[in-house]
Amino acid sequence: MNVDELLERYAAGEIDFSGANLKGANLFAADLISIILIHADLQGANLIFAYLNRAQLYKANLIKAKLCGANFTQADLRVAQLHDADLHGAVLQGADLRSADLSLANLLDANLLDTDLRNVNLTGANLTGVCLRGANLRQEKNNYFVNLCGATLFNADVRGANLAGANLSRADLRYANFNEVNLRGADLRYADLSNADFSHALLNDANLDGAKLNGANLSNARCERASMIDTDLTDVNFSGAAITDGKLNRANLTGANLSKASLNRIDLSRANLSYADLSDAYLIDAFVAKTNFTNANLSNANLVRAELSSATLTNANLKGATMPDGSTSN
């Protein structure tokens, strides 16, 4: 089918073009609202600035398609092939992208507000500056699993998104806004989260082993049972955070702010907390074997039953702290 025939029939009121062969078609700025292109072949097509609001593109082939600035608001893109597609500045608000392949896609500054992205493959995708507020990327009963492995979300707005169980290993999340995001059980191993905002985020059972979080904001975040082994947490803000039962073996927490944090039963063995602020923190039953607290502020901290015998406390401030035996330090 050629472009002129498609546009003529669409203008006459026909909307169902399922299975159409539009490979490489030039549909620049075309008005195709509510069109049905199920199983259609649009590989390499030019749909820049096209209007595809509420379009049905189930299992459509959009590999390497040019979709910059296109409007896919509330469109059905389930199981669509968008590998290496250019979606720079595209609007996908409220769209259904379940099980779509967006690997290597360019989503720079795209709008994915309230989008359903469960089971989407975003491996190697560029999500720099993307808006993912309210998006659903949750893994549910292993039926829906989001792959963001190696994806770029530099400076992305992800506030309030559901990323429970998502694979974000080795992703670039620098300066991204993850405020109040659900990352329960997410895989963030070796990801770069430097200077990202995770305040009030849910990170229970998340794996952040080997990740970079220097300068990140995790104030009031819930990180219960989270694993941060060998993680760079330099100058991280954990004030008011809950990291009970967390595993932070050999983590670098130099200069970190852990004031008023809940660190009960945490494993900080061989971690570096030099110059860290742990004032008013709870470290009941904490495992601090060979932990470095040099010049740390532990004033008014609760260290009941914490094992400090092998910890380094050189020049640490323990004024008012409750010591392992229940006594108060002067």
Can you give a write-up of this model?
The structure is a single chain. The protein is low in regular secondary structure and 330 residues long. It starts with a helix and ends in a 319-residue tail after the last helix.
- Provide the succession of SSEs: H
Radius of gyration: 25 Å
Task: Tell me the major beta sheet.
Answer: none
Q: Roughly how many Å apart are the termini?
A: 85 Å
Set out the fold topology.
Blueprint: H1 3-11
Brief write-up:
By secondary structure, the chain is mostly loops.
Notable features of this structure?
single chain; 330 residues; little secondary structure
